[in-house]
Fold each of these.
Amino acid sequence: MPAPIDFYFDFTSPYGYIFAQHIDDLAARHGRSTVWHPFLLGMAFKTTGAVALPEIPLKGEYALRDIQRSARFMGVPYRHPTRFPLPTQNAARSFYWLQDRHGALAKPFALACLRALFVEDRDISSPAVVLDVAAAVGVDRAALEQALADPAVKDRLRSETEAAIARGVFGSPFTFIDGEPFWGGDRMPQIERWLATGGF
Amino acid sequence: MPAPIDFYFDFTSPYGYIFAQHIDDLAARHGRSTVWHPFLLGMAFKTTGAVALPEIPLKGEYALRDIQRSARFMGVPYRHPTRFPLPTQNAARSFYWLQDRHGALAKPFALACLRALFVEDRDISSPAVVLDVAAAVGVDRAALEQALADPAVKDRLRSETEAAIARGVFGSPFTFIDGEPFWGGDRMPQIERWLATGGF
């Protein structure tokens, strides 16, 4: 059984959202499973000196256009969020808490969160919105609300983010296949060939 | 007759080099010509605040790996230059001087310069190397040597670079199709579809 594909993303990354709609199907076509790793891109940006796309002259304007064109190209619905980028701690902490306790709900929750932000224009930085999204996919709202106040849950996300950066992750989405790193959803053609051929 | 495709690149950009091997064939498949626009990426970086890839923690190491993998993926020979990045004024000034006086030699010269840097590991920041490369494709070496000292030739590159930045160019390669901007060689699948369908 080949190793799973590691998929890193920040919940506020449009390119991460677009890629998340395809990565599991892509992996399955090659007999692979995936492990999803939400992390805080802002912490990685402190290492690389990067700043959020909308703040960059020229590149920020281009990115807004490219994101929407890339979504159309990939057949993914997209509505640029009113609040963008936004803090994603609550969504990411919820994901790891779910993964540890109700594993089968973690990916459906993540996809619902991404949809809430990038299709429904809901502010997923808000704990109340995250709890609503979680409840709608079958999560015990009260238990998750309690978890979000737990220092251990906060520590979990911090150490996951530190581990991602230590592994070389500096952007979203970021994928590892048998140790080979691929930054960006636009590496999908290379990822496909890598999976088909075992490397090139 | 559809409008030509505008292709912007810096001679020290590996992704620009890889893309340059394909852009004219790609355009021709869709009945298009191309206009090549070398420019100075460093001037664009002053606008965006970007720094050269090798200086960026995590991203720099990734880029080196990604460049070589992308070259293999695209079937393009690549040897990472000993001196990288390097100043490209002499190559770019020569290009525009050729384009104005001996238009048919401009692209062969550009391709030979890129090959000198990214296959033969020659230092194309050196005027002598640029003159050698030019002479090998049939350029009058003495006339070009004289041109490289001409303030008008320097001004030409500066204004071409300013015009590129004014148009929104902030990276290499950068392509416009009927006004639609595409940054990066990894946008080739989108470019193909755009040319085939007239937009999506």
Note: The longest strand of chain B covers residues 5-9.
Amino acid sequence: MNLRTRSRRLAVAAAAGALVVGSSALAYAATDLSDHGGAQRNHGDKTKTIARALDGGKAENVILLIGDGMGDSEITSARNYEHGAAGKLPGIDALPLTGQYTTYSLGKDGKPDYVPDSAATGTAWATGTKSYDGAISVDVDGKPQATLLELAKKKGLRTGNVSTAEIQDATPAVQVAQVTSRRCYGPVATAAQCPTNALENGGEGSISEQLLDTRPDVTLGGGAATFSEVAAAGRWKGRTLQQQAVERGYQLVDDADSLAKVRSADQRRPLLGLFASGNLAQRWIGPKATEDGGSKPAQRCTENPERTDAQPTLADLTDKAIDLLDEDGRRGKGHGGGKDEGFFLQVEGASIDKADHAANACGQIGELIDLDEAVQVALDYAKKDGNTTVIVTADHAHTSQIVEAGSTTPGYTVNLLTNEDRPMTINYATAEAEGSQQHTGSQLRIAGYGPQAANVVGLTDQTDLFFTISRALGLSKSGRH
Amino acid sequence: MNLRTRSRRLAVAAAAGALVVGSSALAYAATDLSDHGGAQRNHGDKTKTIARALDGGKAENVILLIGDGMGDSEITSARNYEHGAAGKLPGIDALPLTGQYTTYSLGKDGKPDYVPDSAATGTAWATGTKSYDGAISVDVDGKPQATLLELAKKKGLRTGNVSTAEIQDATPAVQVAQVTSRRCYGPVATAAQCPTNALENGGEGSISEQLLDTRPDVTLGGGAATFSEVAAAGRWKGRTLQQQAVERGYQLVDDADSLAKVRSADQRRPLLGLFASGNLAQRWIGPKATEDGGSKPAQRCTENPERTDAQPTLADLTDKAIDLLDEDGRRGKGHGGGKDEGFFLQVEGASIDKADHAANACGQIGELIDLDEAVQVALDYAKKDGNTTVIVTADHAHTSQIVEAGSTTPGYTVNLLTNEDRPMTINYATAEAEGSQQHTGSQLRIAGYGPQAANVVGLTDQTDLFFTISRALGLSKSGRH
């Protein structure tokens, strides 16, 4: 698999302003969209295809991919830009079973809050418990809730946690820690903002410290900065979290080369890859949305020079995580050295959200394309494996909307030139330019493949996803900590 | 069935500012949303339920319900308002099979236009042909395309066309007419804006005139004004369209009482019910979205005094249309007087879109609840009948977004108090206040029940819907006129 090379090539072509003709572009160029039936996506009755996609059995592995802030509007603009309106996102659009789910969070009074944050939404699918904005796998009363990753580990499964964000950011954090505020990355913030969680107060520690305790086999993301903080109490008192990780047997890597050299990861030698001090660099940059951006000539996105080859792509990270989580299983089988336990892996494309907050259309689209490539990796593996469930969804909807090409609106607009050489205008209007564009409260697309994936069809809630994955992996029914 | 009474009662309670506790509200009040699993919508594996919902066979009847402008954001805000975030829209949310579809239109050059209008989108599902904004069932070259309603009629099925808009508006028009511009309601506009379609130039006439020619068994909506226009040429020259309708055997009704008295409708005596000069009055009114509306105290929607009992609800119209389209079939069977031919019925909740354009949250939500009641009528019938496909979707996405409660944003916000006593702030920011809020380009939810409904699952295009319904009803494969 060399998605990295392919994506670089596409990006370079895009940067040169060329009309990129990939396989998807060729597919739609071959038919005339204005013909009767020319824009069809189905060809004939697919009832049997859907029936074949239904599998109520158990999965050996589950890969959950989250596009942070990836609403239907974000999916559509990325598809339009990269593959054309009639094209297909080769990962995201290939999931056979689809539905919508509700994402609301709760106030601390237990009443619905219609616009959630990524902490409450992650807590919902990680634990099956609705909670308040800011909660990292604790309920509205601050009580810890067991997570999918923890329950999978308890059952003897291998586990992985991958993100393009700081690894302490809400979405990766909800699988490995229980703290009362998402801001409690390390000992310093925890002392101030999550006092009941602080080690010095008898708590379980910050998100980073709990991550080291939870000890997934594979942890890959950003957020190295926090690991220079010093433990305030307990066995590791006075030592940095990085020293602690080394002493506790973690393999530490920090770039694509050192990651490539890792041959195995397990409970004896878990892998902790931190590829940036903060969040990983985004794939694309482009024109900023401005008050009159929609009326300007349509522009192309270009490669972000800050994302160097030293930083693995999300597809690379996903590919490596699957290799490491699966490999020992296969080795075990092949050498009679143990049974294949299966694995649970969460993968987050985090900066769709971060770019949407910043009214940065090229950033947002590039990150969605990056996630789509990770979905392709997961689906390819699942199809070969034959016993893996892949679920792709988002945590909450976001601001960006596709508006009339060339129009300006209240708030901010930007005009992009898509790969099919058409203008696409995107609007951001839930905050002023200097502020952060808001999450929105719409229900979201959820899609799946493999055992138990039929449970995403129809209308579900975000908490249902915990139970769907628990059922697929045969995890303990109790989700309590 | 007395949905009318029930909906009035709910509306009155809502108007009084009371916490409305309907069946849905009771359902969620019984569990604590903050409990582990308390917010689940599924209860156990539903793979078998989904498998049972798959039916690749033929349908005797198809009911297609369109919420104009009903994106996922509009669905979510209506659910939150009326049934609570954890509640269920009893019609829309009950469809078992779900997916997303793309809605882009084409320029006259055949290239994608990412934000479509209701004419191009209606043309897509009515004919299977993508076309330009403004096109009423003609392709990008202006060539007429056969519609589902016409093809159904040709096969001997009964047909119906119901809308809360003017019956010449784009969504109802696409099933009964082929004109080059959606504005060509009657002879006057057609002479000026669709000259090739004008009778005096050898064309097929305006939308209203073609509607009379197409002669569905049941046509119910608004738009009476145009019927006072006078035919400019042909057999009916000099007579009003209303006179023409009477002379051609149509039964004309104009209010709930006269509609109630109709006992049958068929090709000898088709029914034309026009209940308003323009569009039907909307169900609810409420506070206007303003620059600082989000920061004002949350308010309730109230009943629109302009919608009197003389105007049937969309559920009433749907119920009556089904009765008339089905009754003769049943009578035929019962009396040995003929076989049951089945029917095709399109129902549009038009003013979700119109209220969204006007940044009118209460209007939009009330119309969506109205459509949901029509969906309940259709689903109830389909479940009893056992051989009816029901599809519910929208034509294009729209502006409204649910933002942080109490926030103000660029553009316009309004703060509503939902039935679960929580503030919900909605933003409109794709046009200035005096302008019309825009359609948006996001993919949309499509959901179905019954034979061939599995074809909505996954990602499809709006044109696929033509082929899905054609296949369900066994219509002629050629969609050409």
Note: Chain B touches chain A through 104 residues (CB under 8 Å).
